[in-house]
Amino acid sequence: MKKTIPILLLLLLTLLGLLVPATEVSLLETLELDTGDTAWLLTSSALVLIMTPGLAFFYGGMVSKKNVISTMLQSFICMCLITLLWVLFGFSLAFGDDIGGVIGNPSTFFMMKGMLGNASWGALPTIPIVLFAMFQLKFAIITPALITGAFAERVKFNSFMIFILLFSIFIYSPLAHATWHPEGILAAFGVLDFAGGTVVHMSAGWAALAAALYLKKRKDLIHNPARISYVILGTALLWFGWFGFNAGSAGGANTLAAYAFATTTTASAAAAVSWIFFDILKGKKPSAMGTCIGAVVGLVAITPAAGFVTIQHSIFIGVVAAIISNLVVTWRAKKGIDDTLDVFPCHGVGGMVGMILTGVFANSAVNPAVTTNGLFFGETELFVAHLVALVVVSVFAFFGSLLLLKITDVISPIRVVEDDEVLGLDRSQHDEEL
Fold first, then answer.
1. Are 314 and 263 in contact (CB under 8 A)?
2. Which of 312, 315, 391, 329 is nearest to 356 (CA)?
3. Structure pTM?
4. 5: CB partners within 8 A, 6+ apart
């Protein structure tokens, strides 16, 4: 019976696509879409999507050879499952009509209704709403994919698919709505998150820590990364795609997009250098792995701040985030927490550092949307709001993810049996191997 449920659900979705009205056209005379903004957001959406295959290479190169295919496939399947969920009601949950500031009405854009014509999202009136939906989809895709590094080499693939659907519905969508919807509770509280430091990286980071603790340690903690060259390639794709992630979040082809572009690459460069210099200080040799991890930490940390801080301050954000994440990696290892690929120290902690420093360095001269300047400029309101939100989001994402892991485990055991783990997930889960 269990084997028939997935295909039956897919067939039901297929039938819904035939039954839901889909040809209503919205033509608003007072609304004029901008071709330049539309072109940039189309490009940005493609750039953000390439980040998920980039993440697949980034993670795939770090694990043991017997787990490369499984680890990479976990990222790829997010592009498939989350897309269908987003089209069904995920976009509505995140950006539909507000319900209590914490979630959207699932019927607002159910099955992508209302996407034809020149209708737009209220906060971005110069691009079609269907483009806004597809741009935001790419964020929804990569968030659960980020979590996979925490339980790499020991998670059951079928159970993983259940978990990412639950995570997207009950963790990601409420956070996206609360932070990015104009009526969201965090937005009303004054929280600034330019491109996903809170919504994407903090949620994924805390879910990763919950997963590492829930699944416990792997049987064999010693392994050699399968392909350092994959890690370098993955980092390059992530850095490349991140310009869509951050600069695209400006919502158009404008000066703010260019500025976010600049802060993004500056912070990443600073963090990469900071990581290897800090490793040298600790007596280690500068490594390709360390350089790549540092660059990604910088990208993570600048994400919430990219369109709110100056280029000069982005250097500080990158350097500090890399040092703190490096220290947390060491702490995590000493505590024996088996976060396989250090998702929590890099994405969770990097996202939190970025969120806090956004509250320190945000300035209205960079972006008029900043109504209260950061702590660095003598104002405290924004900084305090970010500290409060950090605690609330952390508790919600961590304990919510723990609950979802337990629910998933009840539906389908989430950890592979010992023999399958020893054999490797490529063989035991997919009958494939390098």
1. yes
2. 391
3. 0.95
4. none
Mean pLDDT of the chain: 95
CA distance 62 to 339: 13
The pLDDT tens digits for 409-424 are 999 999 999 999 999 9
Sign of CA dihedral 5, 425, 142, 192: positive
How confident is the model over 250-307, as pLDDT tens digits? 999 999 999 999 999 999 999 999 999 999 999 999 999 999 999 999 999 999 999 9
The SS3 call for residue 434 is coil
Statement: residue 364 has pLDDT above 90: yes
Residue 328 has a CB neighbour count (10 Å cut-off) of 20
CA distance 51 to 242: 7
Q: How far apart are CA 329 and CA 322, in angstroms?
A: 10
- The answer to which of 1-5, 245-249, 307-311 has the lowest mean pLDDT is 1-5
Residue 15: how many other CB atoms lie within 10 Å: 10
In the block, residue with structure tokens 């600049």:
262
What is each CA distance from 325 to 171, 292, 293, 317, 343, in whole angstroms? 24, 13, 10, 12, 10
Instruction: Provide the b/e sequence for 260-287 (b: ≥16 CB within 10 Å).
Output: bbbbbbbbbbbbbbbbbbbbeeeeeeee
Q: How many residues are recorded in the chain?
A: 434
- 202 within 8 A of 394, measured Cβ to Cβ: yes
Cβ–Cβ under 8 Å, residues 136 and 91: yes
Under 8 Å between Cβ of 425 and 218: no
pLDDT at residue 219 tops 80: yes
CA distance 171 to 133: 18
Amino acid at 402: L
Residue 122 has pLDDT above 90, yes or no: no
Residue 51 is encoded by which pair of tokens? 């980040």
Q: How far apart are CA 269 and CA 263, in angstroms?
A: 10
Q: Is 98 helix (H, G, I), strand (E, B) or coil?
A: strand
Contacts of 289 (CB under 8 A, 6+ apart): 62, 225, 228, 231
Q: Which residues contact 115 (CB under 8 A, 6 or more apart)?
A: 109, 128, 129, 130, 133
